[in-house]
Amino acid sequence: MKKVIFALAIAFVVVGIVFPQSNRPVNPAISLERAIEIASADLSARGISATFHRHSGMDWERGQWVWELEFRPNNQRGVIEYYINVHTGAIVKFEWDR
Predict the structure, then answer these.
(1) Contacts of 40 (CB under 8 A, 6+ apart)
(2) pTM for this entry
(3) How far, in Å, CA of 98 to CA of 8, rounded?
(4) Cβ contact 64:83 at 8 Å
(5) How far, CA to CA in Å, does 27 sit from each of 24, 56, 82, 86?
(6) Which of 17, 46, 72, 95 has the greatest number of beta carbons closer than 10 A?
(7) Half-sphere exposure of 76 (CA within 13 A, CB side)
(8) Tens digit of pLDDT for each residue in 49-85?
């Protein structure tokens, strides 16, 4: 019985190291709607006319939690992707696949 308890204790420690709680978003400070607004404002500043298409929810990217957003450019080809930090609202990634 002691070996089982010890093995479980080790497993919980390993899981805590591999999947630390700090890496999981608790309450994102930036809502999905706000992330879309941030990306839309950036598109306007770049002079790009695009329409929000869909989101993929939150994901772990470049060491941080982000909203994954997808826009479709108006009158142009391709897909525009944004990764917006869920805590700060910073644009982590902008990519236009044409």
Answers:
(1) 52
(2) 0.73
(3) 50
(4) no
(5) 9, 17, 20, 9
(6) 72
(7) 15
(8) 999 999 999 999 989 999 999 999 999 999 999 999 9
